[in-house]
Structures are given as structure tokens and as C-alpha cells.
Write a structure and sequence with these properties.
Blueprint: H1 5-12, H2 14-26, H3 30-34, E1 45-49, H4 52-67, E2 72-76, H5 77-82, H6 84-88, E3 96-101, H7 107-119, E4 124-127, H8 131-135, E5 139-142, H9 154-170, H10 174-201, E6 208-213, H11 218-232, E7 236-240, E8 256-261, H12 267-279, E9 283-288, E10 301-304, H13 315-332
Parallel strand pairs: 1-2, 1-3, 3-4, 4-5, 6-7, 6-8, 8-9, 9-10
Helix pairs in contact: 2-9, 2-10, 4-9, 4-11, 9-10, 9-13, 10-13, 11-13
This protein binds 1-O-phosphono-beta-D-fructopyranose (F1P).
Length: about 350
């Protein structure tokens, strides 16, 4: 087995997994799934997870807000356990918690579920493996994703697509549901076009990597940084694009990678930041749905998504390149992304 082969196979196999998940979602009665517990859209939905699943929670909350499906926030499961008054904003109506966990065994998530049980707060669980979380949840959505890799790839994108599907259904946004259905074919063509380019790009020597984004793409930038850290044991971080100017840009030099996940809404302003960092000597990566005239050919690696989906539905397409980059950087360093240093598939804490 070559280094990272299992993880890379699962990354490039996402189009097929997305199709299977969308088939499952099309057959679901979403209203029945969330039930009365979700109440009117005025009730706040609180998305909860750890690690990759926390960034997934942030991306899902942004989607619910953007589509007007519900007021939504995201917190790490640990905040519910350690600072419940802060996490749940106790002065307001009880939230509708959504617990997200690929494994369904992460201790902080299980303990949060037990907390909600004690408080009499009904919640919804989103999982791939099911396990304890599914068994203790009165409402759960288990997606048909079988993922062996330690790091989360297709599980992240599949659960994100599922939550976006729920948000679009609740808000009656047929265009977003249709857009989600277009993603598997789009990704299939993009992998053919860019997989080898990302592998070549990963051979460059970076001391550190900063991934920049605004809005709903910010959690995708955070997940991109986490994939690079987990799969290649390299230092990476995410920043709001404009925030990068306020100090962190001091790390920029020719050994620094700056990657921009560029929205359609704020492309021009976000691209200015990337151009400034290139002028400071950074090696650059740009991911965008389209590159207006005068903006192409600036980044060292440019990935054009070309999706027909509405902007909120494109989030999963942006993260695949960080999944690949992290794995290829790990292999280039002689590491095995299938067995990342210090990591386990789930974090279960002793009692
Ligand atoms: C959460 C998680 C992953 C991380 C690693 C350890 O898992 O923190 O995000 O990459 O695999 O577990 P889960 O609760 O979604 O199973």
C-alpha cells in the first residue's frame, strides 16, 4: 500500500459518496426528521461538534443563516460541557441542538447529549458511523458514508451537504437543493482537471500555511488548515481575509503559503489581500468559482470551480483541494496520511 492511498482514495471517491447521500436525502421526510422540537424558525439552532465536525457545525450554521432557515450558531462540544450558560445563552429560549459526529463516539459529544437529556432538551444527531450517539438520540440522521481514514474527508462534505439540504428544504429554496445535486458531476470533472496539479504544488517547500476566507467560507478555510495540519504535520492556520492584514501577515515570506478561498460576493476585496501577500513574496493558492478578467494567472496555483450551484451550495467544492494538498504534503514529507502522527479516528476521554 502506498503512503496515504486509503485517504486519497476516499477524497477522490467523494462524487460517488455524494450521489449516494443525495439519494438518501431525497427519500427523507425532513419535517418528520426534525419534528416539532425544532419549533418555529425563530428558535435558535445550535450546531455542535469537535475538530472537523466543529468546522462543519460552523459551515452548517452559516448556511441556515444565509438561507433564512433559522437563527443558527455553532459551538465546540466542550463549551457546552464547561460553560453551558455561555454556550446555550441561557437567557434566551432553549436552542434546538444539532450534535455532529462522524464516529458517534467522541466523548465531548456524548457528554453534551447526556447534558441535553438531563435538561429535557430534545436534539438531533448527524452521524456516519452511528454508534453510541445514534443509540442515545431520539432523532438521528445516519448517512451512508463508510470512511476508514483517520482524518475526516467525505464524512465532512457529506454531512455538510446533508445539513445544507435540510436548510434549503426548510426555507423552500429549490435552487439550492438543485445546486447540491449538481455537485457530484462538477467535482468529478474538477478532480480530473486539478488532482495532479495539487500533487505537483504540494512538492513546494512551505514553512507554514495560512488559509484566508470570509463569510460562510471561513469554516471551510479552517477545515482546510486542519487537513494540512493533520495529514502532513505542518503548521497551518485560518484567518478572515481582511484580518490577515492586522498582524498575521508578518509571517509572509517566500517560504509561506497563503491560500485564498474566494467568494463570489466579495471576490474583488478578498482577491486584493491575496495579491498583496503575493507582492510580499508568498507562494499563493487561489480557489474561486470564477476569476474575473485581470485576476487570472496571479496565484501560483489557481483552481476554478465553475459550479452552476447558487453560492451557498458550493461550500463542499472548496474543501477538496485542502484535503488533497494536506495528503500530498504529508506523502512528500515521507509521512503516511492514513496514520497521522498523534491522531486517532475519534477522541474518547477516560472517565
Ligand atoms: C471528531 C474528530 C475529527 C478529527 C479526528 C478526531 O470526530 O475530532 O474531527 O479529525 O478524527 O475526531 P467525530 O466526532 O466527528 O467522529
Amino acid at each position: 500500500m502506498t503512503l496515504g492511498s486509503k485517504t486519497l482514495r476516499e477524497i477522490t471517491g467523494q462524487p460517488k459518496v455524494w450521489r449516494q447521500c443525495l439519494e438518501t436525502l431525497d427519500s427523507l421526510d425532513i419535517t418528520h426528521l426534525i419534528g416539532k422540537a425544532a419549533g418555529a424558525s425563530a428558535r435558535e439552532w445550535l450546531f455542535i461538534g469537535c475538530g472537523t465536525s466543529y468546522y462543519l457545525a460552523q459551515a452548517a450554521a452559516a448556511t441556515f443563516q444565509l438561507l433564512g432557515a433559522a437563527n443558527a450558531r455553532a459551538v465546540p462540544a466542550s463549551e457546552v460541557l464547561l460553560f453551558p450558560l455561555l454556550a446555550l445563552q441561557a437567557h434566551r429560549d432553549r436552542p434546538f441542538p444539532i450534535l455532529i459526529s462522524r464516529s458517534g463516539t467522541t466523548s465531548e459529544v456524548i457528554q453534551a447529549a447526556e447534558y441535553f437529556h438531563r435538561e429535557g432538551i430534545e436534539f438531533l444527531a448527524i452521524t456516519c458511523d452511528g454508534n453510541e450517539l445514534e443509540s442515545i438520540s431520539s432523532r438521528s440522521l445516519k448517512l451512508p458514508v463508510v470512511e476508514e481514514s483517520t482524518v475526516m474527508t467525505s464524512s465532512f462534505t457529506s454531512m455538510l451537504i446533508a445539513l445544507q439540504y435540510v436548510a434549503a428544504t426548510l426555507s423552500g429554496n429549490a435552487e439550492v437543493v438543485k445546486g447540491l445535486h449538481s455537485l457530484p458531476d462538477t467535482l468529478e470533472h474538477l478532480i480530473e482537471a486539478y488532482d495532479e496539479k495539487v500533487r505537483e504544488f504540494a512538492k513546494r517547500d512551505f514553512d507554514n500555511a495560512s488559509f484566508l476566507a470570509q463569510g460562510a467560507l471561513f469554516p471551510i478555510a479552517s477545515e482546510t488548515a486542519l487537513k494540512v495540519m493533520e495529514s502532513s504535520s505542518s503548521y497551518a492556520e485560518s484567518f478572515h481575509s481582511f484580518e490577515f492584514r492586522h498582524g498575521p501577515k508578518s509571517i509572509v515570506n517566500k517560504h509561506a503559503l497563503v491560500g485564498a478561498l474566494l467568494s463570489e460576493t466579495a471576490f474583488e476585496e478578498e482577491f486584493k489581500v491575496l495579491r498583496e501577500m503575493k507582492d510580499l513574496g508568498a507562494q499563493t493558492l487561489a480557489i474561486a468559482n470564477a476569476f474575473p478578467r485581470g485576476c487570472s494567472g496571479v496565484a501560483d496555483l489557481e483552481i476554478k470551480l465553475g459550479s452552476v450551484a447558487p453560492e451557498p451550495a458550493r461550500l463542499s467544492l472548496y474543501v477538496v483541494w485542502g484535503q488533497l494538498l494536506g495528503s500530498y504534503m504529508g506523502v512528500r514529507k515521507g509521512l503516511d496520511p492514513d496514520s497521522p502522527q498523534n491522531l486517532t479516528r475519534a477522541v474518547t476521554l477516560g472517565d
